[in-house]
Specification:
6-stranded antiparallel β-sheet
């Protein structure tokens, strides 16, 4: 908006004035022939006012008089003009000092030249630093770089390219509400003119690892949660651990026989997986690989921060974001906000990394890809997800993040105007977030302690808090080349006979490492007679999934409910509160080779959408229940409809097939293509 640009310009002018005033005061203290007070001495306040007036007068004279002097001196040889610059600047400063109210400021002519030169340099640097935060200025700079690059490159293809932008953790309803509130004008403009909005439903594992693996590689088979224990390998898999991400990607490629969505001139930015792209930056699955000439990206952290303007732009925002988080968390504590989780320690810096550093680097990489004319780009922006975990998905803090993400979308959309080929932008999310307090906060113990109590094992008086599985933390560690998993995250019990209990949002997994196969209900009952009953009847737990020797698989609920999977129904029993598709999602997960001995889904209140997270999160995702399983797909209307009217888009694998279809449409005539048999069957 115009008033915002005006306000921004006024703010920059005031900031430059303030810095110039401080510079003048410092120089007056250093240089013997430059003073801002009378020989009799004056108060510090009077001296400061004198400096402020002098700096303002100098800045005003420079802005008004200097352009006229330059026009008058156009015919002067360049060398002479270069020397005159210093003299003229000094003269303007002497005039400015004469204009001070008390006339107490003075400087020797040669000193005035030095002072004027220093003040001009400082003012220019300050103005430049502030200008780099201006999106318009930033975009114009990218255009200039793009024009230079295009002159050196051969003409690119004329067929449209496609940019897939993933807003991590933004649910369908959250997006709709943000548009209604005017928080996302760019998205609102797309909805009004060029795009259609389609909700879709995640698998049981409603988290980035499962969703993005399915979207980029076409399969999330055998991904039961965010973290799980694999008995055959004796290892805990964690989706945001680079080694695990690399293994999951390898399995998906082997399962599908295809490299991924981005194999044809693609770029992957800020994702867990590569999607088969040749160009990769901030991709977790390659974070542990030695970077060589064949896999080195020119769009990562080093490339971004090698540009001083980028470094200043991001550094200023990083510091501001750390301060913003400290202020917001302090207000939450003082106001006794509930629910609430700890936001101390390194969290302000983790949040600033996710909402500023990673956002800026990824957005710059995407714009570079567009200016380079790449065919398909997929990028993940994790800012909202990180803040919503700790502040809540509907919080004011999260809404502010959505506003800033919309500005990033506007930057990307505007860059498309200068790209060597037309671009279609697809906006989507991988999951939503469901609100609610933590399981521990409501009941005074975590899932791990409840399992130990049900097994008859001693429960420690002071239990360790469950580590949050927020994606940004692993991205920070990977960027700093630090181990992604700390020692306390290894999840190995003191004795092999004790259970391993893992958390993925409001989804819990219990495994017995000393048993090589997936235990049956009958085996668990024989070993720990009270365990399943303790869990199923707890008010904070919605249902359990276990293998049964008699029925193959059974769902357990409160009051002795025991339903075989082949008779499972969404409309009745323990799954009634979890909505349509819950039964199919549970049956699919039951078929995975590495499903845990006991799968635990928390309570869900459909009236307010609340779940109870087994991690330290007040906005969570990972299981069934509420908004976490309802992300969105915002696509250009020139593409064919994602699904036939009256049908529902279900699962990340089906989203992958839709995106593939759209990429094929851009290669040929822009008309809807016939749906493939596998898509109709999905």
């Amino acid at each position: 908006m115009r008033w915002r640009r005006v306000a921004s310009q006024i703010g920059r002018s005031i900031a430059v004035w303030a810095v110039s005033t401080v510079t003048m005061l410092v120089l007056a203290g250093i240089l013997p022939d430059f003073r801002l007070q009378s020989p009799d001495g004056e108060s510090a306040t009077h001296i400061a006012v004198t400096a402020a007036f002098g700096a303002g007068a100098f800045g005003l004279l420079s802005a008004l008089v200097w352009p006229l002097l330059v026009r008058l001196l156009l015919l002067v040889p360049a060398l002479v003009l270069g020397l005159l610059v210093f003299v003229l600047n000094g003269s303007l400063l002497l005039v400015a000092l004469r204009l001070t109210p008390a006339g107490s400021a003075e400087a020797a002519p040669e000193t005035a030249v030095v002072v004027a030169a220093v003040m001009s340099a400082v003012a220019s640097a300050t103005g430049g630093a502030l200008a780099v935060r201006d999106d318009d200025a930033y975009r114009r700079r990218l255009y200039r770089l793009a024009d230079r690059r295009r002159r050196r490159m051969p003409p690119g293809p004329s067929a449209p390219g496609t940019v897939f932008l993933q807003l991590d953790g933004v649910g369908h309803d959250v997006l709709v509400d943000a548009v209604k509130k005017g928080l996302m004008p760019t998205v609102a403009g797309w909805l009004d003119a060029t795009h259609r909005l389609t909700p879709w439903r995640t698998d049981w594992s409603s988290q980035t690892g499962a969703s993005q693996l399915g979207i980029l590689h076409g399969s999330n088979h055998d991904v039961p949660a965010f973290r799980w224990y694999e008995k055959d390998r004796g290892e805990v898999m964690v989706c945001n651990r680079p080694t695990s991400a690399a293994e999951l990607q390898r399995r998906a490629v082997e399962f599908t026989g295809d490299g991924g969505l981005l194999t044809a001139d693609g770029a992957s930015r800020g994702n867990l997986f590569s999607g088969g792209a040749d160009e990769q930056a901030l991709v977790l699955s390659i974070a542990t690989r030695r970077r060589g000439r064949d896999n080195r990206s020119r769009a990562g952290y080093f490339a971004y921060f090698a540009d001083p303007a980028n470094a200043v732009r991001t550094a200023m925002s990083f510091v501001a974001e750390v301060g913003r988080e400290m202020g917001q968390s302090t207000r939450a504590v003082i106001g006794k906000q509930r629910p609430r989780v700890s936001r101390g320690g390194l969290y302000p810096f983790v949040r600033a990394f996710a909402t500023v550093v990673e956002r800026d680097v990824v957005v710059a990489a995407v714009m570079g890809d567009m200016l380079a004319g790449r065919t398909a780009v997929y990028a993940d922006l994790v800012a909202y997800d990180e803040v919503a975990h700790h502040s809540g998905p509907r919080s004011r803090d999260a809404e502010k993040v959505l506003q800033r993400l919309d500005r990033s979308l506007a930057l990307i959309a505007n860059v498309a105007e200068h790209a060597p080929r037309p671009y279609r932008i697809v906006l989507l999310s991988d999951h939503g977030q469901s609100p609610g307090e933590t399981f521990r906060a409501r009941y005074g113990l975590g899932l791990g302690e409840l399992v130990r109590a049900g097994c008859g094992l001693p429960v420690p008086r002071k239990a360790r808090r469950t580590h949050s599985g927020a994606e940004a933390r692993a991205a920070v560690r990977a960027a700093l080349r630090r181990p992604v998993e700390e020692r306390h995250e290894q999840h190995h019990p003191a004795h092999r006979s004790e259970p391993i209990v893992l958390a993925s949002g409001n989804l819990g997994l219990v495994s017995f490492p000393d048993v090589p196969h997936r235990m049956s209900k009958e085996e668990i009952d024989a070993r720990h007679p009270a365990l399943l009953t303790t869990l199923a009847n707890h008010p904070g737990i919605g249902f359990l999934l276990v293998r049964s020797e008699e029925h193959g698989g059974v769902l357990l609920g409160a009051y002795g409910a025991e339903i075989p999977l082949d008779r499972l129904d969404d409309r009745h029993g323990p799954l009634e509160a979890f909505g349509p598709g819950a039964a199919d999602a549970v049956r699919r997960t039951h078929s995975f080779p590495h499903t845990a001995d006991i799968m635990v889904n928390s309570f869900h209140d459909p009236a307010d959408g609340e779940v109870l997270a087994f991690e330290e999160q007040i906005g969570s995702h990972g299981g069934l229940g509420g908004a976490q399983g309802r992300p969105f797909l915002l696509s250009p209307v020139v593409f064919s409809a994602p699904v036939e009217e009256g049908r529902e888009l279900v699962g990340a694998e089906q989203v992958h097939r839709v995106l593939r279809r759209w990429l094929r449409e851009t290669d040929g005539p822009q008309v809807p293509v016939e749906t493939e048999p596998e898509e109709r069957a999905a």
